[in-house]
Design goal:
With about 170 residues, this protein is α+β, with helices and mostly antiparallel strands. The chain has helices at about 5-20, 65-75, 85-100, 110-120, 140-150, and strands spanning about 25-30, 35-40, 50, 75-80, 100-105, 130, 135. The protein is about 35% helix and about 15% strand. A four-stranded mixed sheet has the order 5-4-6-7, sandwiched between helices. It is globular, with a radius of gyration of 20 Å.
């Protein structure tokens, strides 16, 4: 049996690489807070889709091990509203800067999230962040950093680490 010609082998490898790159996977959260993955973006115009880096590789596989462990034992949830303003923006920026995966729940859009916020914080004042069983009302960089440090999250996002979005 003859060995494959280098040109044929190179062409085959190139086609395989193109096929792998062409695979696009989208992740989005529906109005009920359920996470979906698919090869086409959502048809619901209220849902925000993001492309998952690496085709079919999950975002979790691309996170540092310590972040994966912190996210499993102390998931982060942030309650916001449509007009939350600068405090919510600063809180979400802090999470993104640290590379913390989080779930954002808009208490103004979803009645179930509003009820959960009321039970958790006693009012509808946002932002409120939960890190596992720890609840931090309002945005205070020091208190948010402390809660994240206590759960074992990294202080900064690693180079090449995908930016976190809704889990």
């Amino acid at each position: 049996m003859r060995a494959p010609k280098p040109i044929v082998l190179a062409a085959f490898i190139s086609l395989a690489a193109l096929a792998a790159q062409a695979q696009t996977v989208y992740k989005w959260v529906d109005k009920d807070g359920k996470v979906h993955f698919g090869d086409t973006p959502p048809t619901d115009r209220d849902a925000t889709a993001q492309r998952v880096p690496g085709g079919g590789a999950s975002t979790e596989e691309q996170l540092p091990y310590a972040t994966q462990m912190a996210a499993k034992s102390s998931p982060v949830v942030v309650y916001t509203s449509n007009d939350c303003g600068e405090l919510c923006t600063k809180g979400l920026e802090l999470l993104t800067k640290r590379g913390v995966p989080f779930t954002e729940k808009n208490a103004e859009k979803n009645p179930d999230d509003a009820r959960a916020l009321k039970e958790l914080a006693g009012s509808f004042q946002v932002p409120v962040m939960t890190v596992g069983s720890t609840t931090v009302k309002g945005f205070s960089e020091e208190r948010w950093q402390s809660a994240l440090d206590g759960a074992g999250y990294a202080k900064t996002r690693l180079p090449g680490q995908p930016g976190p979005k809704t889990q």
